[in-house]
Structures are given as C-alpha cells and as structure tokens.
Amino acid sequence: MRRREMVPSATHTGIAIQASAGTGLLGSTPSIKLTAAKNRNRFDQFFRLMAFPLVQHRRVCMPAQGLSGNVGSSLGSGNMLAIEISSPGPSNVLRLVERPKPEPHADELIIEIEAAGVGRPDLLQRQGKYPPPPGASDILGLDAAGTVHSLGADVDNWKKGDRVCAILSGGGYAEYCAVPAVQVLPIPGGWSAIEAATLPENLFTVYDNLVTRASLREGETVLIHGGSSGIGSMAIMLARAIGAIPIATAGTREKCEACLRFGATRAIDYKESDFVAASQGVDVVLDIVGGPYLDRNLDVLATEGRLVVVSTLGGRTATLDIGKVMSKRLRILGSTMRARTVAAKGEVAQALLKNIWPLLPAKTTIRPLIDSVFPLADARLAHERLESGNHVGKIILEIAKWRT
C-alpha cells in the first residue's frame, strides 16, 4: 500500500517545558516555564498539570495545523499514522505518514500506543548513523506504552486490553507497534502511559549494565555521567533503590541541582570542576561520553573498579593505558541493548519484573522524570529539544487519538 504523507505546517510549534527548583535533595517545588505557539485556532484537549514528588511537567495535546478536522477519520481501517525518516538528515526530515498497521507474529502482540519515549538512538538513526537491526521496523522509537490491541497465536500470558509498556527494536513513533511478548511489562500501578513510557529503554539499559554487568552492590559508590539525562536520571534512582551511593556529573548548575533532587549525593559541574579530583575512589563508573573520558574514568576508579560504557557521545576511540587496568585490577565493560536477541531482552524483563517492578507503584525512589511531552506530529520539535541539550529527564511523544 502506498503511504500518504501528512506534513504539519512549517509554522507549527509545540510545547516545551522547563522545570527548575531550589537546591538540595528535597528542593523547593519546581516552577514551570512554558513556551507555546501563538495564534492557534483551538486546543483539542485541556491543559493538564501532573505533579510528582520532585518533578512537574505540563502537557498540551494540540493537532498540528493541517491535521485537524477529519484527517484521522479518513484513514483506512488497516492503516495508522506514523513518523518516518524521508532521508537521513536534520530534524525536518521527519514526516507524518500513513502506514499499514503491523500484524503480530506468533510470539508477538500489538500495542495500541499512547506514549513513546524519545532518545539519542532516535537522533542517530534519523542522521543515518544507527540503522535498525535486521528485521526491525524502520520507524523510530525504542520504547512505548499503551494497551494490548491483539495477540499472536502463541501468546497466552497477555490479553487484549492489558495496560503495558515495552522495549522495542523500532516502531514507537506510531499508533500501533508489534513487539515480542517477552519484552512487554505491565504498566505499574498508579502510572499513566505517559509516565510508563519513561521506563523501558532507560531501565532495561541501566539495570542490565549497573546491576547485571557491573555488579553494583549496596554501599558501593557509582559515578554517573550525564546525570540529568534520561539514562543518567534513571541510573541515579536505580542506584538509590539498591542502596548504592550515586554521584553525578552534569554541565550546568541547574542540571546539577536536578541531579541532587533525583537522589545523587553529590553533583559535579564538569565545566567548572575536575570530576576526577572530586570523586576519587568510586567503585563503578557509568559513562555515556566514551573516548575522551576513558583515561579519566580509569583514574577515578578504586581498585577492583568497573567502568561501564553505554554510549559514545564524545567519540569511539581513545588510547588505553593498560598499566592502569592491570595495577588496579579494573574491568572495562560495554554494551548496547537494541541489537540483542529477543531472548536476551526477555531475561532483562524478567529480572526487572522480579526486582524493580514491585518498587514502582510507590513512586518514591524510582519515579517518572519527564522533561516535556509533544504530540506525535511534532516529533521534529521533540528531536530539537533533545538536541538542544537543555532537557532534564525524558522527552515523550503523546500519540493523539486521531480517529473520531
């Protein structure tokens, strides 16, 4: 079936939210700065304020100009709206199009998506630097939350209507996605779909690397680079949850204050201070920078320390002083999640279900940390928000109900 492209007006802008708060672990109630487009014809839904222990966000769901009215109702029953990459490039290559709904394989289920996470892997794929694994959807989006729509023939542990979230190999920027049933987890009690969309990719990645691979234990100290990001903030909260002591780095005073609110015992502005001098002797380092930080990460580790690299934002190559590794008996670990087998992701899901999911309904140590929420049609703006580096927490796409 030929897809139909639906492009929002170039003048359309979305909602960007910035939260700020006082210093300290339990700083004052965050204030909200809201920037919205002017000259809208109408709002489709009302403003809704969601408040959590230390983080607030507002969300506004508005139809993109050119997509209001009966656009959604004109779709065929077998079709859906999705965001696709017209060609590798900047954010304006993202296009809202009509695609066929996916059909589940025997071991899969179909989620009717209500919210999807936006992450750096999406930026890289859009730029042509991170292609999806063989067999995966070319649609962006590695995590999603919503409702079970239909089931494959061999799936018997879920039923239609179940509220779920899932880690994907692709397909989240759409109204529906197919996902192996073993990669699916229930939306925690008391969490909305928007909140649950902050969990899959971040929590799968952080738990697997800090707990399973680096064996972070109660009482140990972990240095977390990029502590205000989606991965970093989740790492701070998870470290707290298992009784470890998180220290974070970030690039501004405001982001350092956010890290303290998330649960970091100390936050280091790496532009103003040397993180090596400020955090000597940590047991584990969780690194998203890569090459430029390798030598300094080795310096900051204690004897028997573990370095875990989960991203290479600063570069993929570096010179390794093997003597440092040998003398301190260090371990250097690295991993990605997206290309792993379904069975491997299923093992992580089961570990999370057993060890972390019981903690989530309380929304205390691990809670939703949302920077901003954009309608699906404004995926371009969500990418620009992430690329700006001004976000604190997770950026979410809300999948609007286009059909009448």
Query: What is the CA-CA span between the terminal residues?
Result: 23 Å
Approximate shape: globular
**Radius of gyration over alpha carbons?**
21 Å
CATH class of one domain: Alpha Beta
Compute the number of strand runs.
Answer: 20
User: What is the annotated CATH architecture of one domain?
Assistant: Alpha-Beta Complex
- What string gives the helices and strands in order? EEEEEEEEHEEEEHHEHEHEHEHEHEHEHE
Protein structure class:
alpha/beta
CATH superfamily of one domain: Medium-chain alcohol dehydrogenases, catalytic domain
- Strand proportion, as a percent range, falls in 25-35%
Number of contiguous helices: 10
In CATH terms, what is the fold-level topology of one domain?
Quinone Oxidoreductase, Chain A, domain 1
- Main sheet characteristics: 7 strands, mixed
Mean pLDDT: 85
**Helix coverage percent of residues?**
10-25%
Summarize the structure.
Among the domains are: 150 residues, Medium-chain alcohol dehydrogenases, catalytic domain (Quinone Oxidoreductase, Chain A, domain 1, Alpha-Beta Complex); 132 residues, 3-Layer(aba) Sandwich (Rossmann fold), CATH 3.40.50.720.
